[in-house]
Amino acid sequence: PEIDLAAEGLCFPELRSIKLSCVNLKSLTFTEANTPKLERAEFFNLLSACRMNLALPYLTVFNIEHSSLYEESSEDENQFGLSLSRCPSLVSLSSYKFRFLGDSNFCILPNCETITLHRSECTRHLEIWYAPKLTELSMQAAFSLE
């Protein structure tokens, strides 16, 4: 069964860090409504492809490995980029084998200092519109990136 951490009425008001490994999530939905103080989010080997919706004012670290996004319609386009843009305190973004980010991804990262994308398979486009504090950018084996 899928775990739905964004189910109506479910809230973790004091949660500051989450690390999930080998779980079946319905979605990567973490917002001020369900995790208002979240600062660190790490996901490893999510068992099914899921949608992504982040909107976290205090998130500073986002790391995801061996996981996939699910895109069903045009509404799902740019869910990666828009989610990151809705986390204005993000300092570090790291991914390994994070798949299916789609054709259209743009983001605004006002506080991001480090971006590491390793083996982002099926990611064809990533446009960083604004990242004035970026000091480290690592892209390795992003074969589909244009």
Secondary-structure blueprint of this entry?
Elements lengths: L16 E5 L5 E5 L8 E5 L6 E5 L5 E8 L10 H7 L6 E8 L6 E3 L5 E5 L8 E4 L5 E5 L6
Parallel strand pairs: 1-3, 2-4, 3-5, 5-6, 6-8, 7-9, 8-10
Brief summary of the model shown:
This protein is mostly beta strands and 146 residues long.
Description:
With 146 residues, the protein is mainly beta. The protein has one domain (17-140). The protein contains 1 helix and 10 strands, in the order βββββαβββββ.
Keywords, separated by commas or semicolons:
146 residues; mainly beta; globular
- Rg result: 14 Å
Helix content: under 10%
First-residue to last-residue Cα separation: 37 Å
The number of helices is 1
Beta strand count: 10
What's the overall average pLDDT, rounded? Answer: 87
How many distinct domains?
Answer: 1
How do the SSEs run, as a string of H and E?
Answer: EEEEEHEEEEE
Shape: globular
Percentage of residues in DSSP E strands: 35-45%
Give the strand order of the largest sheet, numbering strands 1, 2, ... along the chain.
1-3-5-6-8-10
Biggest sheet record: 6 strands, parallel
What structural class do the secondary elements suggest? mainly beta
Low-confidence stretches: none
